[in-house]
Structures are given as C-alpha cells and as structure tokens.
Amino acid sequence: MAAPKRKRPWYLVLALVGAVTLGSTGACGGWSMVTLYREPIDPSIVGQRIADEADRAAVVARFQSYLQALDAAKPRGWPLAVASLLLGGAILVAGIRTLRGKGSARRALIQLIIAQAGTSALSYWLMRDVFDADLRFVEANQSADIHERISDRPRADEIARKGSHVLRAATPIDFGLRTIGSALIVFALTRRRAREILDSANEAIGAP
C-alpha cells in the first residue's frame, strides 16, 4: 500500500512561488538589458509625447546620457545581462520542476538562486553609473508627467522633488529585499522537512 503523500509546509510553498517569481523577474530584467544593447532606442522618440519643450529636452538629454553610460559599461554590462537572463530562465524551470515534486531540481534551484544573488550583487556594484543615469532619466520623465498634470509650477516642482527622494530610495531597498528573499528561499529549501518531502517525492517517481 502506497504511503500517503506528505503535505508541503506553508513556508516551502511560499519559497517555491518566490523562486519562480525571482526567476521570472531576473529573466525579464536580463532580456531588457540584452535588448537595449542589441537594439538601442532613439532618444528623440522617448520625448515625443511630452508637450513642454523644456521638459522634453530634459528627458531626451537624460535618456541620451543613460545610453552613453550603458554603452561605456558594455564590457561589464553585456556579460551581466546575459548571465541574468540565463540564470533567471534556469531558476524559473528549476522552480517549476521543484513545484512538481522533482527532488533533484531542489538542489539545482538552491545553487542557481545563490548564483543569481551573486550576479545581482555584482551588477549593483559594477553598474552603479548606469543605474544612476537610468535614475536621472526616470526622474526627468516623472517630473515631466507631474508638470503636465499640475499647472502650479512651484507645487509641481515640490512634488517632483519628493518623488525623486522616493525613487532614490527604491533601488537599494529593492536590492536589499531581493537579497533577503533569496536568502529566505535558500533557507526554506534546505530545512530538513523540505528536504525530506522533496527528496522522498523524487525517490517515489524516479530521478528525471
């Protein structure tokens, strides 16, 4: 008589869903960077929808600076972008396989998440000039949007400044949250109960 299937603990389910999410976002981010390197966008197109001439010029100039920073960082940025794309895709596949009960995928998933966290840390430190240029472009774009919605210029400028503070805090917070999330996922996947459930499932169905 077959042994009853063991129920997965809540933290394991959350960890696997988080792993799939990390894989998806990592692959999308890597693909976006690869696309920018292969097919850069014409800066003049970026500001076409902006009515105010000064705001449009600022957005175009900031985007041009971003593309220049991206191009100057290509020896670093291109391999990191490809690595992010490949690791994200691999994590997505391994996460889905682990969700389906493939115990051998659990070990691969742990290694891939650690590798992705390392790649993310490298990108954060080695691509700071690109991230800063991108942030300045986003700030200019946000300021232009605010100016179009609010006619009172001093009030619009004050709101834009506050928005810039939020944007500048978002990047390190996002990096910190992703790092903590990766650590929690690895911790959940290496707990004894998680190992027993996933590895016993793999033994029951046979290694892929």
Secondary structure layout plus pairing:
Elements: H1 10-38, H2 43-46, H3 53-72, H4 74-99, H5 103-126, H6 128-149, H7 153-190, H8 192-205
Describe the structure in brief.
The chain is mostly helical. The chain is built from 8 helices and no strands. The two termini are 24 Å apart.
Query: What's the end-to-end separation, in Å?
Result: 24 Å
| String of helices and strands | HHHHHHHH
**Any idea what the radius of gyration is?**
22 Å
Described by strand count, sense and barrel closure, the largest sheet is: none
Spatial shape: elongated
DSSP summary, beta strand count: 0
> Which structural class matches the secondary elements?
mainly alpha
Strand content of the residues, in percent? under 5%
Contiguous uncertain segments of 5+ residues: 203-208
How many helices does DSSP assign? 8
Helix content range: over 70%
The tally of domains stands at: 1
- What is the arithmetic mean of pLDDT? 86
Textual characterization of the structure:
The protein has 208 residues and is mainly alpha-helical. It has one domain. The chain has eight helices and no strands. Helix 3 packs antiparallel against helix 6 and helix 4 runs antiparallel to helix 5. The protein is elongated and about 65 Å long. The C terminus is likely disordered.
